Amino acid sequence: MLRRCLSTGRPWKQSREPSKVNLPKGEALYGIHSVRQALQCNQRVFHKLFLRDTNGQKKKPTVDDERYVKEIKAMAVEAGISVSYESKWTLNHAVDDKPHQGVVLFADPLSIPEYIPQEPQLDAQGRPRLILALDEIHDAQNFGAVLRSAHFLGCDSVLTSMRHSAPLSPAVVRASVGAAEVLVSENRLLETRNMHQALAMSKDLGWTIVGACSGAKSLSLPTFELTTPTILVMGNEHRGLKSNIKQCCDVLVTIPGQTNHASKVDSLNLSVATGILLYQLLHVK
């Protein structure tokens, strides 16, 4: 008996794609910039590159995208990585329907070194260094966007928590537009088993610990100036800084906003707030 769609009365179309696809080992990095940066930084073991088979595709890629895909393929071939052209369905399946832009690279996860507190030093230009500490950030998009801002704005390094934090997943790498790969390759992305202990030890060595937190005791951001090597701590998206982290801070700072108390929107997204703080501390005299 022929099955028909209840809404249209037309026969169901049988899918031509297989119900199961055997994917290469490793995690699936996706998106042109993420994959391109991963290959350039070469911090992983790579297994296979999937490119979308564009035969019969009506929508043509942009000139830039076409150039980047050719560059990605050339880098993969030079590195001895197997390349295959697959259907859009297969690529969608490999990344759970995330926006892959026709490029998926299977690779081992990145390895992040553990943070070892050291005495603070000035950077090459004689300016105070700034480390960004992320305490238990849960959202992959926030994590990636923060890494992108930290790299772009010239943060010395980024410190993350090993536990209760979003892993450095392909989603994070995609949201960072590949900045995560660069930070790892430059040894600027570090992690710690115990954030409070890492901050306390750094403070004893001479680092100034600054927490981002609203409240009566917090300084307005424009009144605070970066004059000593500093660790800026951002708390969790929901609860903010934990009490033991606050106690470790020398200073608390807040971003001033409008004073309309009738508004229900009284805070900023974590990644937006981090970008504002980093720009103010690193680029505003």
UniProtKB/TrEMBL annotation:
InterPro entries: Alpha/beta_knot_MTases (IPR029028), MRM1 (IPR047182), MRM1_MeTrfase_dom (IPR047261), Ribosomal_eL30-like_sf (IPR029064), rRNA_MeTrfase_TrmH (IPR004441), SpoU_MeTrfase (IPR001537), SpoU_subst-bd (IPR013123), tRNA_m1G_MTases_N (IPR029026). Residues 28-113 form the RNA 2-O ribose methyltransferase substrate binding domain. The keyword S-adenosyl-L-methionine applies. It is found in: Mitochondrion. GO terms for molecular function: RNA binding; rRNA (guanine) methyltransferase activity. Pfam families: SpoU_methylase, SpoU_sub_bind. PANTHER family: RRNA METHYLTRANSFERASE 1, MITOCHONDRIAL. NCBIfam families: rRNA_methyl_3. This is rRNA methyltransferase 1, mitochondrial.
